Amino acid sequence: AVLLPLFSQTLEQADLKTGDIDLFAVCVGPGSFTGLRIGVATAQAFAAATNKPIAALDTLDLLAENGALFAGQVVSLIDARNERVYYSCYTDGIKQTEDAVAPLNDVCAQVGETRTLFVGDGAICYREQIAAHCKNAVFAPANLCYPRASSGLALAIRHQNKGALLAPHQLKINYMVKPQAERERER
Predict the structure, then answer these.
(1) Which of 7, 12, 85, 139 is buried most, with the most CB atoms less than 10 Å from its CB?
(2) Taking the CB of residue 104, how many other CB atoms lie within 10 A of it?
């Protein structure tokens, strides 16, 4: 009930119409199952209605972009509940690991004593545990721990420059784990 009115308000303030947009961008995961579905479906609808492409953004890459000016390693963390996190590591803006989900302690062991900037809601949720295990941990301020439009724009332009844009029907959500209901059903 919030997304579409905000989209309309933003267009109105910029004196634009939906058809004026050349490229749509959306995070495809990892993240909240419902949030991802709503975001992807909305982007698909707008892109299909205007016949425009979409940049499918990795949420962890988007968070790492918030720390792009940090000299050293950046680790994006999204809380996956129960002291588990979705994470990926970056050095000088280059992704060093594939997206993964793991216990926080495993991520801390991997980081070790390397000077590391932690970004994302996982960095906020588990700040004390990270600080206790990672001597050289640096924490991004709260305003850089959530996806930012400016970081999304930078990534979307890179996707466009690489020719990595998609048609709406090509989008795939990267859940990384099965929904809890599916996991429980399998048990």
Answers:
(1) 85
(2) 21
